[in-house]
Amino acid sequence: MAEQRVRVRGLSIHRPIIYGNTATVLTPEERKINPSPDHTHRWTVAVRSAASAPDSDIVGGADDLSYFIKRVTFKLHETYPNPTRNIEKHPFEVSETGWGEFEVQIRITFIQESGEKAITTYHHLKLHPWTVTSDGQIPEAPSLETAAKMGPVHSWQYDEIVFHDPYQSFLNILTAHPPTPLPKIRKKPVPFHTANPGSLEASKGGVPEFTQEMEKEEAERLEIARKAVITETDKWRAKLIEKEKELELLQRQIGDV
Amino acid sequence: MSANDILDVLNIQRDGVNQPAKKKLKSNDQVAHSRQTGMARELYNLLGPNTPPINLSNNNNANSREKLAFKPSPWTRMPFKANSKNAHGPQLYHWVKGSKEFLERESKEKSYFFDKYNVGVELPELVDEELFDKFMDEIKEDRKASEPKQEQPSEEKEEQGQNKSSDGEKDGQQDANGVSKDKSETDEGDKQQTSSEKDNEVDDWTYEETKELFELCKAFELKWHLVFDRFRYEGRTLEDLKDHFYKLCAKILEHQENSNPSLIESLQSYSKTKETERKKYLESLLKRTPAEIAEEESLVIEARRFELAAKKMLVERSHLLTLLDSPQSSQSVQQYQSSQGLANLYNNLMILDKHQKKRQLQQQQRSNIPTNQGPVPPPIPVAASSSFKKDRTFQTHLQQYLSGLLKQQQASGVNLKHESSAIQQLLAKRLTVKEEEAYGIYYHANEKLTPGVILRSTQKLPGLQQRQSVLKSVNNVLQELDIPTVGGTNWKPIMPTRKTMTKYDELLRSVVALLDVKRGKDKLESEIKLIKSQRGLQ
């Protein structure tokens, strides 16, 4: 086993995951049954594999991640009973009802073979439908009736868990479970992300799915931004050179005097 | 003077109990006395009464009498035939013990004593011509089936002159052969005529040829060189003869009812081409020039040297391996954290060191002795040697722990291990880019990354290695561009993959460059302003 406890240098391996939540407005009947009558939404916060299973009604979750994740700890708002929820098997998710949005701390602990520390990230529990305004101001949340008509709210963040120089044994486990690749083309709505407000329309009308197209699009957007920055830089550089010449001229004049 | 006289002189009285025995002895003595005289008798008397009497008288007279009674046994010169099967053999004589009448009577019943060793080989009888033709056809077919290209005989060693005397001798022997023959044709006289007209075709054996071959074989008991020498038909090599004879014999035996299958098989296994090849090779071996022999010898010596070098290398390597064979520790260090634990560890290490030194010495001694004698046998594997056992007693607690761990993991992860080995093989041959992507593997050999786990979005990009103030302005620029910033918790890239993250990095750098240019420009502007204001003052 000794050779298994050796890190494989110069290699990194990643697993795409998504974390986030879906939220639906509770119907008046449900609200009556619910022990906390002030709760308005039912939500599920989860950590899943990025690719969606075909014909599933949830975002992502094609693979069972328990081959490398030992436990996911969701730290809910303190007002919830037992706010720290430890989920030790697939699916790594917590379903609750509530009335307000808050920050959920998500702590992912890996299996013992990994020899890695747990990682922590945060997710803003999203209950109200996405709205964007051009001027960047936060608009009023639509009323519950309209929100209920708009369907479930999805808020998911794609990320990749990267293991730099993994242990040999862990690498073996990981490579034994290749992740389901993301679909190449878009068939379902795009998961909305605040960084891409233009995608709001595309995100409507069903359960969204992460695709490779999104990566491409983002790369394109970044490229466009970079080009814009470069042209800006060139502009400013021209100005800089102009100023440099001006300064030189002035200094020579001083020298002459 | 007897013993009694001496006893008398010394005043020694004999016991009464002994008296009767004494008398008896005396009577014995009397008998001895009757024969002995003078000095002999005196000496005899000195022996005393306790010694048993020795009869010194010799029986010479009786022996001589017996000698006179001895009568010498008769030897007779008897005629005999050395080879009863050979009627033309010379008449020989030898001396045999026994009277003439007795021997003559016996020789009629018994043959020559050594005749029983004169045994011939049992050969199958040649069949009649009709059957022979049938067999020949079969043989030809077999040959065609087995090897379509018949190799031409390379050597023409046929002897030219055949002498008739050998024929005669052979005839005689055949006649003498006791084995009953049911040959359809026994007239050998025809042979001469037919042989002159025989065809020289290699494969086509005529019946006459075959018959002679069989007879020769019988006569010389399959002594092939003799058979070949006496065989009168031209164009046949020794191998041809053998081949034909064996093939035909196999056929004949097959045709018989109670034949020995293994014998047939061995007969059929004869390969003419192989035999000729073998002989050619032997001939070439014989005809080697001294230079060739010398070269061969040098090559052999060279090969030996290589072997020795390889063995030496093996020894050295095993030595190296034993050096590397130190216990690997995966136990927790907690037990060594106290001062007592440290002392323990130190002692253990000392013992281990001593053991290793001892082992090395032993191995050196072991390897030194045989080097003087020549090739070194590869050393005994460490596991088998006794010194290893000694070490084990030292290592036990550590090793037991390790092996226990091993067993546990093996028991739990047998399937997984099989799988993983396949994957390792996959990894070993370096995956294609597509496969790498599928497995999520990336080789970052040039980058120095701290081992561990990280979320891609929180990756420490080189572009982010900036001062806080710079970062702030970078973030401002990015927000202007509607690009989320990396590293923050509020703003996250949508798809933080490796590709997009490198793009982010590029973007960050360009933004930093932009800010640098801007700052430079601002600085110049302020400088210009300063100069201008100074000049305005002037």
Tell me the major beta sheet of chain B.
2 strands, antiparallel
In the CATH hierarchy, the architecture of the largest domain in chain A is Sandwich
Q: Ends of chain A: how far apart?
A: 82 Å
User: How many strands of chain A?
Assistant: 8
Evaluate the radius of gyration of chain A.
25 Å
Q: What structural class should be given to the helix and strand makeup of chain B?
A: mainly alpha
The total of beta strands of chain B comes to: 4
**Mean pLDDT over the full residue set of chain A:** 84
- What's the CATH topology label of the largest domain in chain A? Immunoglobulin-like
Strand order in the largest sheet of chain A: 5-2-1-8
> What's the shape of chain B?
elongated
Query: CATH homologous superfamily of the largest domain in chain A, by name?
Result: YEATS domain
User: How confident is the prediction overall: mean pLDDT of chain B?
Assistant: 70
What share of the residues of chain B does DSSP label as strand, in percent? Answer: under 5%
